């Protein structure tokens, strides 16, 4: 049997022979495309080429692309495991032509690979084309030996591809295979007839050849593109199942290795019918989780992080049906890495990180899973008791499972379906919207630039940023706005940096009409750089020229902190691993803050290593170079980009030798030596899987060093020790202090024990109950508790109430033996005593 890894290699080798550049799979986390949660098709990384906003150095390309489809239009989650061919994670084999070859070559080569190289039976293959695509039909008939009766025309639904409502589009030609009448899964449906595009498993699509030749205009009409492209996609798992003659994608060798690991971990057999759906779900979900985490994603409560959380919790719940009540998904990862690590080396590199993240996330869910299942069972039992009419779980109950126990809605729907129930989706959505409304109402109000009344003072271009070259210039004003507190000014050009990319806006002053106006902040809103000036007196509207002067010291300090942030990220990745990615930052003149993906607290030793690497880079006096490049070229050459940032075709690349290369529009030093010193002041957690480091540079770091030195000198003087001896002397003092505390505690305990022996002689009966009351001044609250506990244990049955005045405060403790707690409550007695005396208990 031909192995899956061999099939992948043969596909890539075939197109390499045809002059294609073999490109690596893009990350599952789309760069420069905030519209996507995950990469879901091979063409994603080439979207800019089709939109003509980007270019490549090659005209032909081929790859095997990692994809996840679990949200939006491409949502296969609910079908995963139930059938034999849906997946959340899958590979997409593809070849592309960017204005080079077209339909003839695409059709000819597809047929050659399938029938000559892979020997698929020609009489079982079908080609579908768009209803008016005579050109494609001609090439199928003249360039291949397909049965002409197997060429079929379909309408837009099946054979016309569009990127969106407008933009590039074109007809497509799909290649299908007939797997035989025994593979039909719709035989139970009256009137079903097996056919291509009829929806049963007998005829399945193997390969889609898309011919991008039109542009869809906003009025719905089509116009020819200046260049025509080819975009093809073939599901890797599906073609493997056909070549390996397997009835299910889950029976190919890649999945068998993972399922065998699941069998070993769970002690269950895949051969049992009741185990097949759970094991298929787990195998698929562990693939999706591991590949996504290896590419830098982490489970969370938002966006792609929540998609991963849903996948993991669905897998964990299916594990319960296999008897797995403890975290186990992370134990499947080694089987996946063994099967796919050679093709995707990042799996081997990130294996330990992936296992750690999955284990921690599953442990967190397990703490609430059992309670959530118990609540669900109670809800289901209540509906069963209500008779056959009530079969719907209310939206409020579904929301409680989500909000309190972390059950994603689709998990509740899955469990409901297993019990013959449904979920009130509208009610759930109302509850969710209600929670969001409360959250918005509790948030702070922030003034929007849309609420500023704007006035155009002069037509023309505005907001040209000159701050990379100069901190001072003269210019004209174009737009004027104001709110209750600030004037909002927009100039033709400006040296002021507007807040963006984590870097705060510049401060400084504007001189005009004999006035000096202080710029409190600079912000960006759409294409405007807006200077905020505290209102005072009259604005000099008649001034022809305005002199803009950036606060040089603030800018220099900000630049030091921003450049240090780049060095910090490089050092963190070197010490902790390549899985680490930036998730947020704040750069001010005073300090820097850097948030990043990492799943555990960083040790003091590793923090010292990170700090040392940054200071080493500073000491090396590395030139900081900036240049403008094509986005794709910059990323291909190794520049780091933020996942959720939207970049233009041209980007600014900031390079610090071989240490750091990032896409960044911020301001920086020209040499790392200008930073002078770097000090980490804190490391903490800000969310699950997100750590935060705060640090200082330059003067602020030196000031911190001097303060620490002064503190150490003062400590040495107090303890009469030098800097080497001071720690051991402090440890000795702490040890002696702890020893004395224990001796005092024992003395107090002995004192309390001695007093209780004397107090036992004061036992009195009332209403058939023994009781002791006494005032024991000088007793601490702890001594009072110990004395009452001793009295209660010794009395056997009764009530003990002790009071004391200590340091001017009155305190009481009451104890009741177990046999009397149903009749007498200690808390009620304390309240009554405190009400009379003004004490506390």
Protein architecture, described:
Helix 7 crosses helix 8 (273-294) and helix 7 (253-266) packs antiparallel against helix 10. Strands 1, 2, 5, 6, 7, 8, 9, 10 and 11 form a 9-stranded mixed beta sheet that branches. An 8-stranded antiparallel beta sheet has the order 14-17-18-22-21-20-23-16. A 4-stranded antiparallel beta sheet has the order 24-25-30-29. The model is unreliable at 442-447 (pLDDT under 50). With 841 residues, the chain is α+β, with helices and mostly antiparallel strands. The protein has 5 domains: 4-251, Bira Bifunctional Protein, Domain 2 (BirA Bifunctional Protein, domain 2, 2-Layer Sandwich); 273-442, no CATH class; 449-550, Elongation Factor Tu (Ef-tu), domain 3, CATH 2.40.30; 555-706, Threonyl-trna Synthetase, Chain A, domain 2 (Threonyl-tRNA Synthetase, Chain A, domain 2); 755-837, Diaminopimelate Epimerase, Chain A, domain 1 (Roll). The radius of gyration is 35 Å and the shape is globular. A hairpin with a 2-residue loop joins strand 31 (764-766) and strand 32 (769-775).
